[in-house]
Amino acid sequence: MLIQSTLIALSATLAAAVKPLSVKNQFFVDPSDNIFQIVGVAYQPGGSAGYDATHGKDPLSNADICRRDAAILQILGVNTIRVYNLNPDVNHDECASIFNAAGIYMILDVNSPQVAGSLQTYNPWESYYDTYVNRTFAVVEAFKNYDNTLAFFSGNEVINNESSAGQVPPYMRAVTRDIKNYVAKHCDRKIPVGYSAADVREVLFDSFEYFTCAEGGKSNDPSRADIFALNSYSWCGNSDFQKSGYDDLVDGFRNTSVPVFYSEYGCNAVQPRPFTEVGAIYGEEFSSVFSGGIVYEYTQEDNDYGLVKVNTKDESVTLLKDFYTLKDQFSKLDWKKVQGVKSAKEGSGPKAPKCDAKLIQSKDFYGNFTLPDMPPNVDKILAKGVSPKPTGKLVDIKDFSVKYTVKNADGSVISDLAVKPLGSDESNAPGSNDAKIQDSGSVSSGNSTSSDSDSDSDSDDTKNSGAAGSAIAMTLPAVAMGAFAIFAGLAL
After folding, report:
1. Please, are residues 27 and 342 in contact by the beta-carbon 8 Å criterion?
2. Structural domain tally of the chain?
3. What is the pLDDT of residues 122-155, one digit of tens each?
4. How does pLDDT run across 359-386, given as a tens digit for each residue?
5. 221 and 214 in contact (C-beta within 8 Å)?
6. Nearest to 226, CA basis, from 323, 142, 297, 150
7. Does 264 participate in catalysis according to the annotation?
8. Is 94 a known active-site residue?
9. Band of the pLDDT at 492, cuts 50, 70, 90?
10. What span, in angstroms and rounded, lies between the C-alpha atoms of 275 and 293?
11. Residue 273: which domain range?
12. Which of 141, 157, 209, 277 is flagged as catalytic?
């Protein structure tokens, strides 16, 4: 065991495990033309405190922490992380390369909690100006050269009720247009750009229709979202396909022309979370429409959704009950079958509907598809690229060993932990990293640990429980974690 771990730790590699995915019809596909299902975790260690522009800190800025977390996520079986707040002025080469070697893709939000870092939910025209758009372009520049950059989110829950639905849609679609145009002009490959929606049923399907339809019926319309995702918490405890409303989601998105997936899931109204929805999400009925999902969230914060607990004094990590339960649910599935479905012939999937006010059902939802022009100066930025221009590239990783202590729920230390570099074109899956951890059957219920009092996280995340299936239960975690960037304008 020690010899094997040492060899892994000392092996130098250019992080080349995964190759870029592409969108074909309504699914992601890998280089072998297999439909790719996202098996993800929301990754924002420290919550809002994990982003600190003043000190050049964001979730992908510290290689030692990324090594620690990539190894843990490999053990869990994750192939994708979602990162909410990133600083384009910080170098991310090592972290991106570590996750790439681990077989883990990255879905990245372009917004941030800083001034001019997000589109407002009210009077969005006040926040749609050149400084903001330039910032979104800079995130694209910083991450475009990493093979494991899977997609960009142009917005997260900017439409979260009927009031915001009356103002935001054309501006959100305009931001998507601007970013897609930048990708087309300045990136060597087509990186998907899309929207992460609140699962508020009064506006969900109208949001989907508004963002994924094609102006003039042209599928190459630059303002049309390449992907559509939703933050959904409707399956709580041991629910089922009907009680949770999963059947309604499958029916509502059945004719999607773009990949649809959960950008967040994992209701915690019942604890510890049983994660019984995992079997449904990757089952045949759901996966015939959806492309997987992202569990909320990696680290334990004030809102009590964590899979692991970080001691911020020494950066040690303790695995929580939810980690073991989720790992067990993943392990029940036949991943060769889940990830081995061949894609259909190009062009055989559903076609994007032509944008028309008739697509919109709610009288409160903005149904006009005339978009605002780009703000002044953005045309110049789009033509020449952002300046100064962030750069990023995959680099050699010489050491994959984890320097920080990682503990089981019982306090025992996981020995010789390291990232296991995967082969070319290989994404992570359960069993890729076979580090020995505590048996799940011996883990006590609940997410509390003996080291809870050691954490000094200053996250401002909050959680107010709602009834299963309610708008609060389905969307609030995203408001607490990701959407604080969107609402930053309220304090400006």
Report:
1. no
2. 1
3. 999 999 999 999 999 999 999 999 999 999 999 9
4. 999 999 999 999 999 999 999 999 999 9
5. yes
6. 150
7. yes
8. no
9. very low
10. 12
11. 2-491
12. 157
